[in-house]
Predict the 3D structure of the following.
Amino acid sequence: MKKRVLIVTYYWPPSGGSGVQRWLKFAKYLPQSGWEPVIFTPENPDFDLHDESLLKEVSPHLEVIRFPIWEPYHLFSKVKRTAKSHPGRMLEQADKGLLEKIAIWLRANILVPDPRIFWVKPAVKFLHALLQEGQFQAVITTGPPHSLHLIGLQLKKKYGVPWLADFRDPWSQWEFLDTLPMLSIIRRRHEALEQKVLQEANVVVSISPTFQRDLEKLAGRKIELLTNGFDPEDLPNHFTPVFKQANMLHLVYSGIIDAIRNPLPLLEAMKAEFESKGEEVKLSFVGKVSQAVQDFVAADPWLRSKVHFVGYVTHSQVFSYYAQAHALVLILTDTQNAKGNIPGKLFEYMATGIPILALGDPEGDSAAILRESKTGEVLAHQHKIGIQAQLRSLFVSAGTAQSQKAMEQYARPSLTQQLSKLLDKIAQVS
């Protein structure tokens, strides 16, 4: 008889983001380890990108419980008479009006830990009957948004259900909070809530060694490492990267470019290295790109001719762009949390066998993985000469990348086995 685990997540149906795919994949493989996942998620969440094609990977028998959520962004949109918008997007705007500034301040100092806080109380109330009847042997919460951990906290206290808290990003030390006009007393409120979660959860997991160590310092207890990874079934049958001729270069970036992922040093290095010689280079952005970066490219005639914005495509479609790439670009964050930034995209890139050029912390966790696997190199954003040298090396190289399986330790089935062992442990203790 399978044990049942309730997974509380904000993003479902999933988008193509790595944090979202993390729990899609766990839900896909958990039944193989004797756990039946049940998804609990908002009925009407406020996020932009949906990729319904990903749902075909999960059994049609997967139970998904959707419960309405009210978010203050809806009220702001009515006042502005615009499409849904929230401070995360408004922070990227160069010119902010009074209403935008007020909304950002409220987000920073009133909506603690985040705007999904209004979902906590009604969600716990809604789940009362299910938990009281003992339908679940464990509960998982994943954040951000970190308010979802407060649901786990209350369920643990009220019903004693074993609880695993998954930190995909830090909380009180999260770099996003540094972009907000937050009062010091509110920062301490975040720290206090975080401590309650860290102390009460039966198990706390995080995605990178750096985040793991940082949380262990805060919590004074063991934090488990459960990285993102790659699903071997994602790679299309007979996937074959293009044969690369010398003296040409097609770079492909897949994912989101936002306020904390800065590709401008790469664009500047491309222009410095190739413009004067009229060489054949191209960079394709596959995914949503911030308006600031699009404007930067539009203002430069050479970049405008070399940089292409494909836009958002489904996860299954992105592999056709990989197959045309001579090298894959990874833009890591250049912020406080950069050392522990290991995006799920890294493992997908590795599985293609295509060379990887990454901007980020050369001493960070992603750099260590790339060095270990010999699949790429991470260069500091400010190391312009180094970026140019790596671009030149990729430009003159020739041959066909060899498709390879992701290292076993990062394969989704293997990672799910690690998760199931943690769930077995806390379920037995309870």
